[in-house]
Please model this.
Amino acid sequence: MACTRPPSAPRSAISNVNETSVFLEWIPPADTGGRKDVSYYIACKKCNSHSGLCEACGGHVRYLPQQTGLKNTSVMMVDLLAHTNYTFEIEAVNGVSDQNPGARQFVSVNVTTNQAAPSPVSSVKKGKITKNSISLSWQEPDRPNGIILEYEIKYFEKDQETSYTIIKSKETTITADGLKPGSAYVFQIRARTAAGYGGFSRRFEFETSPVLAASRDQSQIPIIVVSVTVGVILLAVVIGFLLSGSCCDHGCGWASSLRAVAYPSLTWRCGYSKAKQDPEEEKMHFHNGHIKLPGVRTYIDPHTYEDPNQAVHEFAKEIEASCITIERVIGAGEFGEVCSGRLKLQGKREFPVAIKTLKVGYTEKQRRDFLGEASIMGQFDHPNIIHLEGVVTKSKPVMIVTEYMENGSLDTFLKKNDGQFTVIQLVGMLRGIASGMKYLSDMGYVHRDLAARNILINSNLVCKVSDFGLSRVLEDDPEAAYTTRGGKIPIRWTAPEAIAFRKFTSASDVWSYGIVMWEVMSYGERPYWEMTNQDVIKAVEEGYRLPSPMDCPAALYQLMLDCWQKDRNSRPKFDEIVSMLDKLIRNPSSLKTLVNASSRVSNLLVEHSPVGSGAYRSVGEWLEAIKMGRYTEIFMENGYSSMDAVAQVTLEDLRRLGVTLVGHQKKIMNSLQEMKVQLVNGMVPL
Ligand code: AMP
Model:
């Protein structure tokens, strides 16, 4: 037999990262060493991104199908840590590799895992138990993979899983009350971070304390009575259902009157008349002229449908109006009022929703445009994109029903809560928006009107992109102005190439995202203040950019400037923005370096004349105008008696003068900036 050798290294290894899983694939070695028994071994190293030092991964990583003796040229590693740098070495070995005193032959691949949802809660302990309540406490998941925003606790009486209760808690303890005595209850808990919900914990079973035998017997009586009543009603409803045949035409009136009379909380007949996810969808098929590829979801422009009604029903579920309860008006849309209310679907608990209505007397085009938004929204499914529940088109008023966002639009919310959030909270909001935008750009959808006013925020401070439309988005937006080439454009948020020659792309959405970053970091300040649209276009064309918001981390301002690169190809992509923000969130100390307050001001002073030569005649008049008149005396006493002197004021000076309220500091500094910008007609030169 001829002598054989160890194989050479595998070749062309590629990796694919999905949250905390990594898939590796490679080509067999060029030289198998003259043997047929080549197999592969995977070495895993976890590396510190700063020091570059690596250590063995340890036992928590799982290899599918295995780590050693791999016959195939691919492997999957799961349960890696989130946001961690790993190096995988793929080594080819054969029957004589062990005899080889020389260096190992491997190919290595470096990857960084992404943000993952938190791992399940693994330990839950019972606390105080009474006959009607159970208190629980638990430990944070082993791998939270981010800041835990809240826990969701699901519980139900044992063997009664269809009727469960959900409680949300920011703490790691809860008390479930209103329980039946002497009954077993099953609890499951899951944690939520900005990346979404983790998996539910395993089931934990606890029992309420029993009551004395006599009273237990008595307490059973109403239960039996209720059970019998419910049983009879159930039977009646099922028989009614069988007799009535179709749901929509005659069912609802009957069902809702039965509901009203016999059992107020039953909603048997309400529900979707069309399932959203077609099980065939995963397979490749040809549909209305669009080829759908398995696994590749792309946005379909509803305009491509000959019949727009078909598009709506393709992408949106029809909801029966009787399932919706309108509660109050919360806003005004272009087509009618926006209301809050509740939706009760079959087999689900009632939950809050927002309802957009189409006002009476609409034209066919208005109806089409109104429902166009639903046809677009219905194609998306992402935690940072506003979720469409469905539409009402078969009765009037026509409605679009979406998830309810308690805090409304982001710009108004930030203005109302000026200075109230930590930098990490603000970056969390920005991360959410970037993640939603990444999803949209992956789907091939260009938003064109990304601005804080078009982001909605819920009670957990989760931001979601909203306001989808075709041409109407811009028609609808009061910020949009007509350009010389026709068409309405929200100038302050729009990239120069989109203003100049309507080149709207995901890269122009990135520009707008940079403006949203600026809006968020300045708590809803108006970009470019009161400059006119024409002045904004001119300043941006000349290479000026918005200055950093006050107290803004340098890394974030740099990211804004990157988004505002003139060359659209040089701007970061949304996935890079998400990764960058994730990195900052993981390493909060990187947010400590703020844009230097004095450089922030002096940027604006470069080559420009001093402030005040026309705008205000005195310091007092200026401070009065911005409702800060209370500081006039302090300014005068400290030598800031002229507008020229005021021009030199820095944030440190303000603090020294005793202006300690952040809101007041901002008002004064922003007013100074605004005056300077107006005077010099320029911002920070790039
Ligand atoms: P729109 O026509 O989408 O711009 O909506 C008008 C206003 O209604 C918004 O500025 C919000 O204040 C409010 N609104 C719209 N959708 C929702 C929602 N899903 N949840 C809460 N408020 C909403």
About this structure: The chain has a mean pLDDT of 81. Residues 330-331, 333, 338, 354, 386, 402, 404-405, 408-409, 456, 466-467 surround adenosine monophosphate (CB under 6 Å). The domain at 410-601 is CATH 1.10.510.10 (Transferase(Phosphotransferase); domain 1). The chain has five domains: 11-112, 117-211+265-295, 302-403, 410-601, 619-682.
